Every structure is written in C-alpha cells, then in structure tokens.
Amino acid sequence: MLETSTLCIRVSDTQICPFCYSRQIVKNGHTKTRKQQFFCKKCNHRFLDFYSYKGCHLQINRSIVQLVKEGLGIRSIARVLNISTTTLLKRIILLAQKAERPILVYGKKYELDELRFYIQHKKNLQWLVYALDHQTRKVISFYIGKRTNKTLNIVVKTLLYSKAERICTDKLPSYRSLIPKNIHCTKQYGTNHIERKNLDIRTSLRRFQRRTICFSKSLRITTAILKIYFWM
C-alpha cells in the first residue's frame, strides 16, 4: 500500500521513507525545480517529495518485468508506461543484472536445445542455446551465438560441472563430441519439455517468432530480455 501511495501522496504527507518505510526522515534541501528533498537516517537514501516523471516511480520496475514477460516490444512498453525508450533500455539492463539464475544441483537430468532467430536483419542469424531442468522445467543456463561447437560447449560445460545424471538432446552431431556417451541421451520424446519451451518463447517474445519483422537491434538487449523472462 505504501509503495503505490507514492503516486498520489507526497512523502511530506506520509512522513515515511519509500525504501525502508522508516519514519526517521529529515528535510534535505530543494532541487532546481524547487521540489523538496528528504534524507532517511536509517537507510541513507535521498528522495524527493514527489516525482513528476513516471520513470522515477518505485513500481515502474515491476511493471517493466510484467510487460516484458507479456511479450511487448521496447517501444510498446515505453508507450504504455509513458516513459522514454532510453530510460526503458537502461532499466532493462539494470534489471537483468539483478536477475539470479537457479542454483545448480548435482545429479539432475537436463534437456538441451537450440532456437534460431535474427538480430537486425535475416543475414545475421543467431542461435539461442539453453538448458532446461527436466524436473522443475526452469532454464539453468543459456548463451547466444553462432551454431558452433564453441557456443554449444559453453552451456554443456555448465551442465557437466553440476555432474549431470543425464543430458537429453536432439541428434545434432556436434553434441556427440561435447557430451560423454554415458550421460548423453538422444531418444525420442527425451526433449519434450524443452521443445514446448521453444513454443512458449516464440509465442511470448515477438523477436523469436517465425516470419516476423520484429527483429532485435542489439545482442545486449536480447540477452537482458531473456534473463528477465527466464529468471524474474
């Protein structure tokens, strides 16, 4: 309730810090536009009495995460939230840095697959290689690059470090030289969950859809979008 109340109620009315909800706040001068500043003695945060720009509201990050998962593009999210695209891109990168990948557990069964998409134009073909926990169906690791052994090996090494019990893949020949035979599985229906995940990604994120003009312009932003989609 306190988090949403900052939209219409000033800090001077509530006398509560919007970060730690402490009442140990004092006035701390004014900005160039004559807005009252406050300082919290408990968490040492400095904040304004009210923010006129919507990009400064506390719940804006939560809205960005929700809209990214719903598959809206950068400009669509900026229009809905009424913020600039530059602010949105910076927020996406900061949110991606805070995303925490699931903890690896020894002796698990994983599914591994690749997903093809484009960046900027169809001449720049890229592959999303990622691994899925067979039991929890959570994405453990992913990497974007060309469809080479070097790209595949980055994700495979992560699974080998966790002492995977079994790694299920399709019959791509490159996997035979990267995954030990005793844990490698290429049987039919072994990658059902990750194939379904491929469909979910293509349905949710426009930049991964087939026959689309919604190409990503930046590899960095695409990686950040995937971190938010997978791990937040």
CATH topology of the largest domain: Nucleotidyltransferase, domain 5
Order of secondary-structure elements:
HHEEEHHHEEEHEHEHH
| CATH architecture annotation of the largest domain | 2-Layer Sandwich
What is the percentage of strand-forming residues?
Answer: 15-25%
Distance between the termini: 22 Å
Number of helical regions = 9
Shape designation: elongated
Order the strands across the largest sheet as they lie in space.
6-5-4-7-8
CATH homologous superfamily of the largest domain, by name? Ribonuclease H-like superfamily/Ribonuclease H
Radius of gyration: 22 Å
Protein name: IS1 family transposase
GO molecular function, one term: transposase activity
Function: Absolutely required for transposition of IS1.
GO biological process, one term: DNA transposition
Topology overview:
Blueprint: H1 2-5, H2 11-14, E1 25-30, E2 36-40, E3 46-48, H3 60-69, H4 74-81, H5 85-98, E4 109-119, E5 121-133, E6 139-145, H6 149-161, E7 166-168, H7 174-178, E8 184-185, H8 192-204, H9 219-231
Parallel strand pairs: 4-7, 7-8
Antiparallel strand pairs: 1-2, 2-3, 4-5, 5-6
